[in-house]
Amino acid sequence: MSTIAGNTQNVFAEQVETIFNQVKRQAELYPYVREKSFQFFIEQGVPTVKNEEWRHTNTEPFLKCDYTIPSLITAPSEYSEIKNELNLKCHILFFVNGYYQKQHSSIIPDDDGIEISSIRESLLQDEVIWSSTDEILPNDGWKNLNDAFVLDGIRIRIKKNKTAQYPIRLIHLSNASEKPLLIQSRNIIILEPNAEATVIESFYATGNGATLTNNFEHIEMGNDARLTCVKLQQLENATESTSTDSLIHYTSCKLHQSSRMKCYTIALGGSLIRNNLYVVLQGSDGEAILKGLYTPTRNQIIDNRTHVDHAVSNCQSNELYKGIADDQAKAVFNGKILVRKDAQKTGAYQSNKNLLLSQEATIYTKPQLEIFADDVKCSHGATSGQLDDESLFYLQARGVCKDEARKMLIRAFAEDITTSITSEEIKTWLNNKIEQKLQ
Amino acid sequence: MNILEINNLYANVGGKEILKGLSLTIKPGEVHAIMGPNGSGKSTLASVLAGRPEYEVTGGDIHYKGQNLLDISPEVRAQQGVFLAFQYPVEIPGISTTNFLKTAVNEMRKARGQEPMEAKAFLSMMKERMKIVEMDSRLTTRSLNEGFSGGEKKRNEIFQMAMLEPSLAILDETDSGLDIDALRIVANGVNQLKNKDNAFIVITHYQRLLDYIVPDFVHVLSNGRIVKSGTKELALELEERGYDWIKELETV
User: Fold this and answer.
1) What is the ipTM of this complex?
2) CA B132, CA A421: separation in Å to the nearest integer?
């Protein structure tokens, strides 16, 4: 570790230590886990660029703020606007700076297959909150930091043989007015055997102050369970020239026998967004479809790390991630498929395609395939390129002006990420968001 | 007024001079066939007329309906009625033929100060024009040209031409790669669209297409210039004698 890097980490650790003492006073639950995780964090720090998994994303500049932990505040005025942008009857779970806002959330009562409780409420009874992600995610500084600090979040359970009648919409809003905030929350989504649900999560930011959100999510899918999970990340304000809000987001998914998950990660913008999506197929005949779109502009960084672990036989995974980088932005894709020795008859496919819209934008892509079984069908591929001149000219030759032709081609590039979403309302909402960003 | 007047045109691509003093005048209602050996400049002429950016005009001028065509961007040329049927139509995943044409038709209408077309009127126009090239309606919902056969791509070009109703259509080797049935369909489409106000430039390597699209004039291009012009009989002569005697003409 270089001196500068070391100093930054030390400063960050000192700040975090101060606020950790506040956390301990707020929640005296599981002090042992918190203390242990905190010690790990103090010793290890968060991963630096020396760590292969974080090579292209330097978080050091984001550690330099004088962070404090958020206190409970009421919902900012943007709340109703955000709520209404999706024209679909949903359960709404609203979070400000990681805290669940019960008074602004609305759970439709007649949906008897779902059970929702805030983590704050269930901290006492629920050891799973700390232990669930341990075996899937890397034991790194961010995870330990979250273990040490987590104060709130949500736990969703879809009961056996039940289908959630309405999508469950989680709205995470980061809001710092002046002092920079370090936000740490956790969500747990459990689908019991043969349960079905659609979960829509959006991450937004308002306010002028800086925020760093370190959010963890665990998804547990019982036998034959079915989940559509949509994540929209837009921590930027079109009127501001730079974004001051960042997100470190870890998702661990455990898929049991014959369960099927579709996960859409749409990262439109933010100062820094780092997604870590870890999927373990550990029951046969499971299926994971992972789609992602990332569109950093200006000096934003969006980094997607995916990890698909085929632990048993007869599972399918299909991954398509697309990136569009403009201005001086940086986009990273690092996707790994691991097919273990026992995972015969696996079908695992991964594709990553990138579009560079400016000379100064950068793309890093690293597809990885590790196969230890011998009877499998796997493929991976990555491309990076610019808009095709021939296609541009073709559109122009049909009367479409160059600017509009560019927009059409950029939209067309991103188009197939959302096509497989079955709900027309959700698809339209997402496509509008994407289109606005790509304007 | 002449639709097109090309006067002593010189053009190069990648620093290589291809057109070397080409002149051609086209009046409304005429069909001009341009033939010639490989590398004679046929496709360069098509590209220059459509405004392909890599092609640089170094001498001469082109007037389209009395205005200097070289001052106009490719999209405005299209909006004013210049249409190029591409030799190699581009595949564009993510854009359906229907959406693409709706944008194109409405951009043209906008340029003419007209309101966008009603969805219903547009769809019935599509349906009607698709018949001209016997195009399968399922193709229009698929991504533009993606996975289309060679024949389907060329038919799609003529279908687009039917939708956009150009004044000057340039068919750049539209017959290449077509079997005899597809060739007849494409030619039939062109013949239906032909009228007294528009004009066609049919670029082809072989005489075969001209059995179906009967030209008023045939020009032979060699080494960047028109070395011989005539009527449709010239095409038959070329078919019989090949291009070698033309090359000799040029050196005389």
Assistant:
1) 0.96
2) 36
What pLDDT was estimated at residue B177? 82
Q: What contacts B21, CB < 8 A, 6 or more positions away?
A: B8, B9, B10, B59, B60, B224, B225
Q: With left for phi above 0 and alpha for psi between -120 and 50, is residue A161 left, alpha or beta?
A: left
Full-model pTM: 0.90
Once rounded to an integer, what is the mean pLDDT over residues A419-425? Answer: 96
Could B90 and A391 be called an inter-chain contact, meaning their C-beta atoms sit closer than 8 Å? yes
Residue A185 CB burial class (10 angstroms; 0-12, 13-18, ≥19): buried
C-alpha pair distances (Å), A373 with each of A25, A319, B144: 50, 20, 40
Structure tokens at A263: 């996960």
Q: What single letter denotes the amino acid at residue B22?
A: L
Say yes or no to pLDDT of A26 above 70.
no
Average pLDDT over residues A319-345: 97
* H helix runs in A92-239, sequence order: 119-122, 128-131, 141-149
B147 interfacial to chain A (CB closer than 8 Å): no
* Ranges assigned E (strand) in chain B: 4-13, 16-26, 31-35, 55-64, 67-68, 82-85, 92-96, 143-144, 168-172, 199-203, 217-222, 225-230
Look-up of token digits 């330097």: A58
Chain A nearest C-alpha distance from B224 (Å): 24
Residue B119: predicted pLDDT: 92
- Name the percent of chain A lying above pLDDT 90: 72
The shortest C-alpha distance from A411 to chain B (Å) reads 8
| Residues in a beta bridge with A278 | A252, A307
CA distance B214 to B158: 17
For A1, A48, A229, A423, B124, the CA distances from A427, given in Å and listed in that order, are: 45, 37, 12, 6, 28
* pLDDT number for residue A238: 61
Quickly state the pLDDT bin for A4 (edges 50, 70, 90).
very low
